[in-house]
Amino acid sequence: MISRQIGQTGIFVNAIGLGCMGLSEFYGPATETADAISLLQGAVEAGVNHFDTAQLYGMGANERLLGEAFKDRRDKVVIATKFGPTRDRTTGAFTGVDASEANMRAAIEESLRFLQTDHVDIYYLHRMDQGRPIEDTVGAMARLVDEGKVRALGLSEASAETLRRGNAVHPISALQSEYSLFSRDIEDGPLPAVEEIGATLVAYSPLGRGFLTGRFTRKNRPTNDYRSGAYQPRYADDAFEANLALVEEVKSVAGAIKAEPSQVALAWVLSRSDQVVTIPGTTRMANLRLNLGAADLTLSAEQTARLDRLAEQVSGERYPEQGMRNINV
Known about the structure:
Blueprint: E1 3-5, E2 12-14, E3 18-19, H1 33-46, E4 50-52, H2 61-70, E5 78-83, E6 85-87, E7 94-97, H3 101-115, E8 120-125, H4 134-146, E9 150-156, H5 160-169, E10 172-178, H6 190-197, E11 200-204, H7 237-256, H8 261-271, E12 276-278, H9 285-292, H10 301-308, H11 321-324
Parallel strand pairs: 3-4, 4-5, 5-8, 8-9, 9-10, 10-11, 11-12
Antiparallel strand pairs: 1-2, 6-7
Helix pairs in contact: 1-2, 2-3, 4-5, 5-6, 7-8
């Protein structure tokens, strides 16, 4: 196991945690409640202690799962959740981002209730509210720390400038952004800013939304979930074919060291900085155990160099045009 601190908080987590979104939404049907709880509790037994959720995942359903799973073992887990994006409670349609104090207060009370706890360990602004100064939002979030409802603050997909401005109001302990062999854009600004202020990068989608597991083929591709080409350009027709070819390089490196492609991809992310932790998602215990095995891998300089070349060859953006407008702002 690799243990790393979240910022300078004294909160230590296994560097390979669990992103819980897929248990409730976006990657196919929601996992049956009993199975999801079994996975979450099994993850704790396997050594995972960092679990990431959000208000918008299943519109509370995901937080409810964590609440049920951890209500009798709260002291063994670090729970992170997020607020900001809003949805129509009837249709589920996304309606914007509201980082006001009023919305934050309503969100944290709901999250605490669903999570069956009196505090959240890491509380993120999930996306930037571009109509509101970050100083105002972080100032309001800081009051939750003073009240004991939150232990540490984080931002998600924020630019280096926004991160620094927020940190000037209250320490920002974590930046959560997509980071993987396929997505390295944060290296041009946000990642150096994370290191500068002494925060931690929490890398989501470190397996390229499943691409880097090596399990997809031309005949086996996700078409009925969030990864359809309409929502994930890298899974669109021509891009999918091009990106599949890049995964062969990951498979080649993995084969040479008798590892799985997913383990190589995670080991690469963790090797970038001691201030990086990951939250790969899965709904299966076998996959979770494979992910944890990445902690035992050390990539050679030659292997790392081979992998480093992949990002510049990736076809397609991380999100459609509208989604990219909310990234690195």
